[in-house]
Amino acid sequence: MDKYRVKDLMVPISEYATVSEGSTLLDAVLALEKAQEIFDHSQYLHRAILILDRNKRVIGKVSQLDTLRALEPKNEQLDKIEDISRYGFSQKFIINLREQNRLTDVSIRDMCLAAAGLKVEALMQTLTEGEFIDENASLNIAIHQLVRGSHMSLLVTSEKEIVGIIRSSDVFSAIFHTMKACKLA
Predict the structure, then answer these.
(1) Which domain holds residue 162?
(2) Is residue 79 part of a domain?
(3) What is the pTM of this model?
(4) What is the DSSP-derived secondary structure letter of residue 104?
(5) How many other C-beta atoms lie within 10 A of the C-beta of residue 160?
(6) What are phi and psi of 39, to 5 degrees?
(7) How many domains does the chain have?
(8) How many other CB atoms are there within 10 angstroms of residue 122's CB atom?
(9) Angle at 47 (CA atoms; ends 148, 155), nearest 5 degrees
């Protein structure tokens, strides 16, 4: 395992789902679907879409969870419930309040139609310093960054240029195979 470098496990940007800024959520979901069809199916599927600026540089990402959040109804009552959840009320009580105030007559289809036209910039997570890792970093460093930052992936750089992405699933796979080899040896 000590021989692994981040560049050995990363997915190159060219093989990852990307869309340009200004794209809609539907464009992003379609790009993700296409990348998953093309990607080697012996590997784990992608869980995010990278957002590129006009110069083809990564400026953010939209995860599966961000996509699901876009489906959540937005109203003033639900915002107030989020505020009061900080005051120690039980999780059961908060969930009950949320359910009472959800728009129960809205179909999944209607929620999807509304979310599909949202611009990715409105949903994307901006990148933080802890989400970047050099391609020559050891797997130990990658594990540390993933765990400390609770990240599902890190953007891999080569001389400050983003060249790929290393996903927690790729790191887990390498660890799993190393453990298995050690146990069988």
Answers:
(1) 6-68+117-184
(2) no
(3) 0.77
(4) T
(5) 7
(6) -65, 150
(7) 1
(8) 10
(9) 50
- Which pLDDT tens digit goes with each residue over 19-42? 999 999 999 999 988 888 876 655
What lies within 8 Å, CB to CB, of 182 at 6+ separation is: none
Is residue 15 situated within a structural domain?
yes
Query: Residues with Cβ < 8 Å from 52, sequence gap 6 or more?
Result: 18, 19, 20, 21, 58, 59
Mean per-residue pLDDT, 97-120: 81
Give the count of beta carbons closer than 10 Å to the beta carbon of residue 21.
14
Separation between Cα atoms, residue 24 and residue 123, nearest integer Å: 10
Q: Which of 112, 103, 108, 110 is nearest to 75 (CA)?
A: 103
Tell how strand 132-134 and strand 153-158 pair up. Answer: parallel
What is the CATH number for 15? 3.10.580.10
State how beta strands 48-52 and 153-158 pair.
unpaired
pLDDT band at 103 (very low <50, low <70, confident <90, very high): low
Classify residue 120 as exposed, middle or buried by CB count within 10 Å of its CB (0-12, 13-18, 19+). Answer: buried
Virtual CA dihedral for 160, 150, 1, 12, nearest 10 degrees? -40
- Residue labelled with tokens 């460093």: 141
Site of tokens 């990852």: 16
